[in-house]
Amino acid sequence: MKNLSIFLLILVSAKSFSQSQKEVYSIMETTAQKLKEKSGAYSVSVGIVKDGKVYTKHFGEIDKGKGNKADDNTYFEIASVTKLLTGQLLAQAVLENKINLEDDIRKYLKGSYPNLEYNGTPIKIKDLISYRTALPRNLPDDIGIRKTMSDETPFQYNALGENYTKDHFKQDLQKVKLDTIPGVKYNYSNLSLELTGLMLENIYGKSYETLLKENILSKAGMDHTKLELGKGEVLANGYHASGRLMPKSISHLWGASGARTKSTMGDLVKFLQYELDSKNSIVQESQRNISNSKGDWYGYFWDSYGLSEHGKMGYKHGGAFGDQLWFAIYPELNTGICVIVNVSGPDTFPALYNSVARLMNGLTTKPGKKETEGYYLKGDNVVFTYTHPKNLNSKLINSASVAGSFNDWKTDNKNYQLTKKEDNRFELEVPKSGFEKGKTYAFKLVLNGDDWINASKNASNTDGTDDNNLTLKL
After folding, report:
1. How far apart are the first and last CA of the chain?
2. 247 prior amide bond cis, ω within 30
3. What DSSP element (H or E) covers 339?
4. Which among 10, 84, 46, 36 is positioned nearest to 339, based on CA atoms?
5. Domains of the chain with CATH codes
6. What is the pLDDT of residues 306-354, one digit of tens each?
7. Which of 249, 275, 277, 389 sees the fewest Cβ atoms within 10 Å?
8. Given the DSSP bridges, would you call strands 239-240 and 343-344 parallel, antiparallel or unpaired?
9. For the whole model, what pTM was predicted?
């Protein structure tokens, strides 16, 4: 039991130590170099907000062999991170009682749209913000393009959108057909966001761009976030994973989904600070668990908002033709991370995901002796264990489970649910006889059915993969 006590002490105290500026930048560099290698990006930019301080650093070069390193004022396309801005505008409209989450969206559209319902059930505002509208992914229709994705695809998208106007969008919106009842099935939809931009313009009588500037960008001091660059302003080059130079996105729609937005790391760390403001009622509304989900939720257009070993966490991934970025906040630790790579391909998303997990791990785990994590042995049993840091809100944990190669990674397996032993500690005893002696099993602890816990950098029993799984071997 001595080893268990040490393990619990490490977890409980892991989140409460400070780091020097040198240590933070060292962690950033280690993470960025590995990400650069894994993603194939020429350029990696990292921004961190931690303990009220801002850190930014840039690695590599925009164009191979040119030595043109990015800086805090380099413009990148931020793609779907724009959806968080759109979400805040909609959250503001809710708080101002201009709309209601239970409203039929057609209340805020001009013209007739009898097709925007399914068997009498209309699309509501709450369906819009949680990607449950039953609307197609895009307008104009891109089903044909999406069947075969390659480094030619961005050029095909631009050809599809270069003459597509807002009027075309409204006409096509009258023709779309819902494929199920709204509010039931998750289906990521850029169409829904452009529709939101149109609705916001109808609600306020101002352009989407003006609403952004007046209500968010000016307040956050984000002077370098815009839908159109000014004279002399240049967008950084981005590349496909194949190495091919990618075009800049062409769109003549509202821009609410992200096809038009450019920003800088200097502005994005300001946006991290803005999203971490616990006193900003609009920000808090945009992150709220509206559906009272026992697992993850979406707030207003987040990719996911839920729980991690670092407490509450919300993230948004932005994927442009030639760059991708990860934008994440950890409100309970007052920490935010943004990472940009100037490459886009099928493996970029997991490379970003794993890199941010490693980065956050480095920022929150105090260096110490390597110890076994996730389980200990007790007589004839293996005891899987998870202890949530005491300075984080353990009341957010509705369930804890263990999933691994021994149960086909099923988080809902009833035989692998942990039981609460204390407010912040959960355990499960499993007979050793259920595991083959000498065989190595990979596993992770899981909170609320959705949130996979990453091994800390002090764990001695990891599998060395990018997934950073824990291992069990008897």
Report:
1. 17
2. no
3. strand 335-341
4. 46
5. 76-364 (3.40.710.10), 375-473 (2.60.40.10)
6. 999 999 999 999 999 999 999 999 999 999 999 999 999 999 999 999 9
7. 277
8. parallel
9. 0.94
